[in-house]
Amino acid sequence: MIKRLFIALVMIMIAVIFIQLAANYRENTALSPLGTYYADQGPAEVGAANLVTAVVVTYRGLDTLGEVTVLFISAAGVGLLLRRTRRSQGDDDLEKGDRAEETAGVHKPASEIVETATQLLLPMVILFGIYVFLNGHLSPGGGFQGGAIIASGTMFLLLALPESHVSRLLIAIIESLSGFSYVVIGVLGVIMAGGFLDNRIMGLGTFGDLFSAGAIPLIYVFVGLKVGFELSAVLDRFRKEDTGPL
Amino acid sequence: MSFLAGLQISQIVLCSGLGLVLIGLWGMLTQRHIIRMIIGFSLLDTGIHMVMVSIGYVTGGTAPIINDAVPMAEAASRIVDPVPSALVLTSIVIGLGVTAVMLSFAVRIYRTRRTLMIDECTESKG
After folding, report:
1. Touching check for A114 and chain B: CB below 8 Å?
2. Number of domains making up chain A
3. Contact A52 B89 (CB under 8 A)
4. H/E stretch holding A197
5. Is A208 inside a domain boundary?
6. In this complex, which of A4, A27, A81 lies closest to B59 when CB atoms are compared?
7. What is the DSSP annotation of chain B?
8. Are B54 and B72 in contact (CB under 8 A)?
9. What is the CA radius of gyration of chain A?
């Protein structure tokens, strides 16, 4: 009872703060000085039509590297937590219980319609993901969004054809290589241009072209691949049956 | 919708965002089911994103993408602030990572305890 009262009190106090915030809120009528700088100088300095991409990949590129690292650590944590251990007897018993449950609720194989539709739609989903991260510097989208779309393709595959096998070794190789290449591009920026993750290691090209904005499309391809395969690995880990090591 | 007529669009987003934060916090504090607590966290996370986006809004602004609709010369006067949008992008990804780790903890707890009620996990209680 006292706990309930305490929770109610906390909620009321936070609500009072929020009401004050909302009541005193005034919509901006002009950009902040930083936003104005990015809007005026961004296209000339970075060459990306999408200013959010310019901020994410170039001006605050180090933050994005940290973000990719956080996602990597969380994917590794999920992998560690959902690993099957066969050390203790208690675990083995639970394992048996798990298996019994699985066979009790065994799913019927997907119908032919579902299988055909999966084969038809899956390439399109993946192609759309690639389109989104290749056009990240021109249109809304980018590496993280494209990667999430690719992972949704994996989700689709795992839902429609639960027996399908996702190679963990392939996922690990592609993910590590793209993460490594991302850092290499960042270091190349220090050597060949103005600083870490500077995109001017390649020509800026014509503003608004697909191959423009220096290294941004390249960085987003690596980020997209890394995020896509990392999230696919996370989804695969959440499946009930655990297939093989690694 | 006459009662919304006096409100600006960013005010509506801000108020719904703050409301979601409150709902999420309430859910995390009162619910005893682990999945419900995680849903509460997700609501709180989404609410914070909405608040951040609404703070970056500029009256009459459009997406910060320079093309035929928004020529380079007029960019600074016609776009919304790109910085909060970029920060929200980062924040969404981190929120996803945190949610994934929380869900895998839930799976682990269910494997060992066969329950998802937090009251059953008492050994770390003081």
Report:
1. no
2. 1
3. yes
4. none
5. yes
6. A27
7. -GGGTTS-HHHHHHHHHHHHHHHHHHHHHH--BHHHHHHHHHHHHHHHHHHHHHHT-BTT-B-SB-SSSS-GGGHHHHBPPHHHHHHHHHHHHHHHHHHHHHHHHHHHHHHHHS--BGGG--TT--
8. no
9. 24
Is A167 inside any structural domain? yes
Question: Does A136 reach chain B within 8 Å, measured CB to CB?
Answer: no
Mean pLDDT on A128-136: 88
Smallest CA–CA distance, residue B98 to chain A, in Å, is 7
Cα-atom radius of gyration of chain B, to the nearest Å? 20
DSSP B70-93: S-GGGHHHHBPPHHHHHHHHHHHH
Domain ranges across chain B: 8-60+74-120
pLDDT in tens, A162-186: 777 777 788 888 888 888 888 888 8
A vs B, Cβ pairs < 8 A, gives 145
Residue A153: domain span: 51-79+112-239
| Band of residue A246 on the pLDDT scale cut at 50, 70, 90 | very low
> Which of A42-56, A130-144, B71-85, B90-104 shows the highest mean pLDDT?
B90-104
Contact B79 A140 (CB under 8 A): no
Which residues of chain B neighbour A4 with C-beta distances below 8 Å?
A: 30
ipTM over 0.85: no
Mean of pLDDT over chain A: 80
Cross-chain CB nearest to B94 (options A67, A77, A139): A67
Of A83-97, A224-238, B36-50, B82-96, the range with the highest mean pLDDT is B36-50
Q: Domain B8-60+74-120, what fold?
A: Helix Hairpins (1.10.287)
Mean pLDDT of all residues in B113-124:
78
* pLDDT of A87 over the 90 cut: no
What part of B 49-108 touches A (C-beta under 8 Å)? Answer: 56-59, 63-67, 72, 75-77, 79, 81-83, 85-86, 89-90, 92-94, 96-98, 100-101, 103-105, 107-108
pLDDT of residue A55: 86
